[in-house]
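Re: your question about Hypoxanthine phosphoribosyltransferase

S., sorry for the slow reply, the queue was backed up all week. Below is exactly what I fed in.
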Amino acid sequence: MFEDIQEVLVTREALEEKVKELGKRISKDYEGKELVLIGVLKGGVVFFADLIRHITIPIEMDFISVSSYGNSTKSSGVVRIIKDIDIDITNKHVLIVEDLVDTGLTLRYLKDLFEDRGPKDVKVCTALDKPSRRKVDVPIAYNGITIPDKFVVGYGLDFGGKYRNLPDVCVLKESVYDNKVD
Ligand code: 5GP
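Result:
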């Protein structure tokens, strides 16, 4: 796995520091409020697990699974729910926890979906942001680290189902992508 890495783009230390800071801000902003964190599977799971341990107020949590890239590095723009949340978010504050905002299409869809279910509000928290590729505007209340327009893996993000367990955010060698991109 490590021999496929070309470059570490964001180190685990930088991620840890950012996550701590986000946890602190979220704890302060939602003090005394009913907060539901919704993690987006599978990519958001590493960030989610790190983030909740830096939140010092009571929270509820749930997960939604949506279709993403499959084996390709290009977004189809089509969002499909594979697993919905189970809990009722009526009158609660919702925070969607994502791995990375790229075109914004996934988050736009999720935000609209949850807003139709009568929450107090729906905000977004992302570990990584790639603003240069945005197609639709989605406000990000809690942004981790802004990255350039490169396809990355690690810290929850995959390529062909692999590399999610890399602790840093990395760019793979071109030869790895060339062999698999459809
Ligand atoms: P969007 O809908 O904003 O284009 O992207 C949604 C999802 O696509 C992200 O949550 C992430 O799972 C995936 N994605 C976007 N950019 C990358 C990338 O550089 N690497 C990987 N592995 N996944 C990405």
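The mean pLDDT is 92. Residues 2-180 form a domain with the Rossmann fold fold (CATH 3.40.50.2020).

Happy to talk it through on Thursday.
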